[in-house]
Specification:
- The structure is a single chain.
- Helix 5 packs parallel to helix 6 (about 125-135), helix 11 (about 225-240) packs across helix 15 (about 320-330) and helix 12 crosses helix 15 (about 320-330).
- The two termini are about 45 Å apart.
- The strands form 4 sheets. A 6-stranded mixed β-sheet has the order 10-11-12-13-15-14. A 5-stranded parallel β-sheet has the order 2-3-4-1-5. The chain has a two-stranded antiparallel sheet with strand order 6-9.
- The protein contains 17 helices and 15 strands.
- The protein has helices spanning about 20, 25-30, 40, 60-75, 95-105, 125-135, 150-155, 180-185, 195-205, 210-220, 225-240, 245-255, 265-270, 275-290, 320-330, 340-355, 425-430, and strands at about 50-55, 80-85, 110-115, 140-145, 170-175, 295, 300, 305, 315, 360-365, 365-375, 375-385, 405, 415, 420.
- About 40% of the residues are buried.
- The mean pLDDT is about 90.
- It has 3 domains: about 5-175, Rossmann fold; about 180-355, no CATH class; about 360-430, no CATH class.
- Strand 7 (about 300) and strand 8 form a beta hairpin.
- It is globular and about 70 Å long.
- The chain is α/β, with parallel strands linked by helices and about 425 residues long.
Length: about 425
């Protein structure tokens, strides 16, 4: 019954050659740079339980699961007790149940590994996992479930109380590399020990996607095929969720043409061919769940929470995503505005802060690009990427005693009483736990 899954389980035939023959692990060995997946450093490899691994497309979830298989084999787990299952070939939860039950009942596990990739492809998959767990078949098994839709994964897994094991951390997420992580990775190659500004300009092309970083290192550019792969995954996910490519492209077009502006869903709908604001809202929600965009809310300075009635800003989650989605939309529409570099930099800064703090923007008499919350206070940050700082652009941030301006200029200083520091150096030293 399991023979059809053998192409992803080559260790069954010969564990000694698994790393060399597996398509994901062999590509990893050929890559100039290997991402330091913290998931593999902290995953409780010897503790049975039900774990999740979420993260957007092309971030390396499958590669992480394959590396976890390798770790299990090196730790002495029998090859026949390690099973990787890709759910894109599973028809429904009934088939999922049959496959898992067959594997789990075929062995008496001292310790087994069950790695289920993109489990959210299967409708009501959680009912199958619950049934398998209730039958006691996961008692000695490390079961890791991956999925690109974090909300669906978290919502379903919440319906498995008391069945997930004893590990203190059970849910993990892969995210794009932030700028200092990219610097650390590139600095392992002598020829890439470049000035910070050059490294940052490269980051504005590749973002934190290791596949793009490796192509830039190896070939000097990111291939069309790499963009295509990411685009096809995103479009495919929407079709799988019973949404249309036509509507998706219209909404991406609207996001790109209003990039950096404060918008409502009604505003975005006005840049489409008649899509309702409710449809725009729904698609934006899916794009956010799938790790394509993030929505930045205005700050209510009294409650230190989002101001729900004020307009929002819509950011692409990463520069690589921004370029991939821009290219996709350009192929459908002849006239598509480029995403201004300064706006892309603003998105990069916002996402660095968002990884560490609750982060918003300020809309009052003027605007402040970022307001992050730390220890029950908000700290305003203004992004100025253009070469010259103009006093009129600082109208709002000057009102706060704890403001900061991140500028393209290298030297620190003070303008109208507001501290100014190098944006690139600031991000290069940014630490996220």
């Amino acid at each position: 019954m399991l023979e059809r899954f053998s192409n992803h389980n080559l260790h069954w035939a010969d564990p000694a050659t698994f790393e060399r023959r597996d398509p994901h692990l062999s590509r990893l060995q050929e890559a100039p740079l290997i991402a330091p997946y913290r998931f593999l450093e902290v995953f409780p490899v010897q503790t049975p339980g039900i774990y999740t691994l979420s993260g957007g497309r092309q971030l390396g979830k499958t590669t992480c699961l394959k590396q976890l298989m390798l770790i299990a084999l090196q730790d002495g787990v029998k090859p026949e007790h390690v099973f990787y299952l890709a759910c894109d070939v599973i028809l429904d939860r009934s088939e999922l149940y049959d496959v898992l039950k067959y594997f789990l009942e075929s062995h008496k596990f001292e310790r087994g590994y069950l790695l289920i990739d993109e489990v959210t492809f299967v409708k009501d998959w959680d009912l199958t996992i619950k049934a398998i767990a209730d039958e006691g078949l996961l008692r000695n098994v490390v079961c890791c479930l991956s999925g690109s839709d974090k909300i669906i994964l978290e919502d379903a897994i919440s319906r498995l109380p008391g069945r997930r094991g004893t590990a203190p951390v059970q849910d993990f997420e892969l995210k794009p590399l932030i700028f200092p992580e990219a610097i650390a990775l590139l600095s392992s190659l002598p020829q890439w020990r470049l000035p910070l500004e050059e490294l940052f300009m490269h980051y504005l092309k590749t973002g934190g996607y290791i596949v793009a970083v490796n192509e830039l290192v190896r070939d000097g550019e990111i291939s069309l095929a790499t963009y295509r792969t990411y685009q096809q995954w995103v479009v495919g996910d929407f079709i799988r969720l019973h949404r249309t490519q036509r509507n998706l492209l219209q909404i991406l077009f609207a996001i790109i043409n209003t990039y950096g502006s404060q918008v409502s869903f009604q505003t975005l709908s006005e840049h489409t061919d008649g899509l309702s604001k409710d449809t725009v809202n729904e698609y934006c929600g899916l794009l956010e769940r799938l790790g394509v965009i993030s929505i930045q809310y205005a700050l209510d300075q009294n409650t230190l929470r989002a101001a729900p009635r004020k307009h929002r800003k819509v950011h692409m989650l990463d520069p690589f995503i921004a370029h991939a989605m821009h290219q996709l939309v350009c192929e459908r529409y002849q006239r598509v505005a480029d995403i201004d570099e300064s706006l892309l930099v603003e998105s990069v800064c916002y996402h660095h802060y968002q990884r560490k703090y609750p982060s918003y923007y300020i809309k009052a008499e003027g605007e402040v690009d970022i307001a992050y919350i730390d220890k029950q206070r908000f700290f305003p940050v203004e992004i100025k990427w253009r070469n010259k700082l103009r006093a009129k652009d600082l109208k709002q941030i000057k009102k706060y005693e704890n403001g900061l301006i991140l500028s393209r200029q290298e030297d620190d200083g003070i303008i109208d009483g507001v501290p100014v520091t190098s944006l690139i150096k600031h991000l290069a030293g940014f630490k996220v736990v």
